[in-house]
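Just curious: can you write whichever protein you like plus the matching structure tokens?

***
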Amino acid sequence: MIIFILFTAILCYRPIPQNQYIILSTSKFWFNYRQAINSLMIYQQLKEWRINDDQISLMIPEDTACNRKNNVPGVACAQDGQREPNLHKNVNWDFKRNDVNIKYWIDVMRNKYNRYTPQSRRLTLSKEQKLLMFMNGHGGDGYTKMQDTTYLLDFEMEKITKEMEFLQLYQEAFLISDSCGAITLFETVKAQNMILLGSSSLGEKAYSHGRCSILSISKTDKFSLTTHYWLKDELDKKPKLTLLDQMKKYNYDYHKANSKLIINMENKQAQDIKAADFWKPKQPMLNQVILRNDQDILAQQDFLKLMNA
């Protein structure tokens, strides 16, 4: 009898909601190497925290490691003059090359896909999940460029986020943009329970960091690099750090830009919001098991007792 209950319960197990992530680079071409690296740095940090690929939609148009101009083929590294760590290892691409466009990005954000989109490319957004989006590329006053051919405008961002709120596609969302005039893309967003972070303000630039002697290009942007090291060196060790702690890392002396945070939440300030709730949530455990035919729910405690019997 116990074996039958366990077998039935496991078949009908309902996992607790997990955070969902969208990692987006909007730029192609070799000279935009740093934008691909920015996204890969964030992606690989999430993977180090054992966040599954089915929770991440990775959208990078330029495969820098395999570009014929790359002097170190197969390698994409953020460190100037170095080959390791190779960020190109063990990457699960969801959208590449021309598939990284405004239409597919909107599909992911709206949780609506055409029937030909494989399940492996889809995120499952719901009102029970937190959403984090990190995007970087070229932008300006109220827009971000997509592959230097099309534009995502601020009123489109407002419309999309409003629809997400109406469709209840998130519990809370944290949207981050690293580009010139980044925050201007978000300033019209009114959707509730959203946090919006831009690397620069109106009229400001987003600057690259250093220059690689091997490739003769910049490998990263300052804001993305600061974010990466803060996640790796500080948040990883101190999960109680808040968004205020994160914002303190973006000093003007180094970044030459004023990063700005907008919080569309009632009675919440940056010091009230734990950054780990979005970046590094606790890994889910069994929370409940549902028997078939709508029978009684076997509570987690009872289930664990049976498992340990």
